[in-house]
Amino acid sequence: MAPGFPIFIGDIKIRTSEALYQACRFPHLPDVQRAIIREASPMTAKMKSKPHCRHSRADWDDVRIKIMRWCLRIKLFQNWTTFAVELERTEDFPIVEESHKDSFWGAIPDEDNHLYGTNALGRLLMELREEARNIHEESVVINTPNLEQFLLFGEPIPRITCRLKQQPSVVKSKSEKSDIEQIFLFEE
Fold first, then answer.
1. Where are the domains of the chain?
2. How far apart, in whole angstroms, are the C-alpha atoms of residue 108 and residue 100?
3. What pLDDT, in 10s, does the model give residues 26-66?
């Protein structure tokens, strides 16, 4: 959950990709979406969604990776000169969301400090890093996921065109590899 990379859906400013992701849980509840999107930090956006989780879209578990991928792509391409640099600084090292309780989005260390879990967020970020390396266009069109009821504030979410200002320049930093013992694959 990294703040500092705002997203625009039309003229709606969303401060974090986590807020957009959480809002997408509730396409049928525009007031809940507004409350989530008003939050300034990723964590408070997530916490704002918690009381409403039982009202999540019926297919949430089936579509959450697709929606997170879409949110992260918007985050990257609307913050191209900064977020692409952050991704490139990871070089070719694994990106792991280390967590103490979420083995789906992250990976949990065991008593020997080996990480176990799906690491879905880390995998999506590595996928995005590879995509960013292969972008040579001046603009990118991000289509919405092909989902029923993909709405924000009661309106269909449009595809988004991002104009890339310039290719990011990267200052390489020294990194250490994570000790990943086992990671399970997930499907799109």
1. 7-183
2. 5
3. 999 999 999 999 999 999 999 999 999 999 999 999 999 99
Would you report the helix, strand and coil content of the chain in percent, each value rounded to 5? 40, 15, 45
User: Residue 3 — pLDDT band, cuts 50, 70, 90?
Assistant: confident
Q: What angle do CA 35, 39, 42 make, to 5 degrees?
A: 125
Q: Number of helices (H) and strands (E), helices first, in the chain?
A: 6, 9
Pairwise CA distance, residues 96 & 119, whole Å? 6
pLDDT per residue over 136-187, tens digit each?
989 999 999 999 999 999 999 999 999 997 655 444 444 444 443 333 334 3
CATH of 7-183, one of 2.40.40.20, 3.65.10.10, 1.10.357.40, 3.40.50.80: 1.10.357.40
The whole-angstrom distance between residue 116's C-alpha and the CA centroid of its chain comes to 21
pTM over 0.70? The answer is: yes
Buried-state track 110-140, b at ≥16 Cβ within 10 A, e below 16: eeeeebebbbbbbbbbbebbebbeebeeeeb
Per DSSP, the three-state class of 85 is: helix
- Residues 84 and 171: their CA atoms lie apart, in Å, by 12
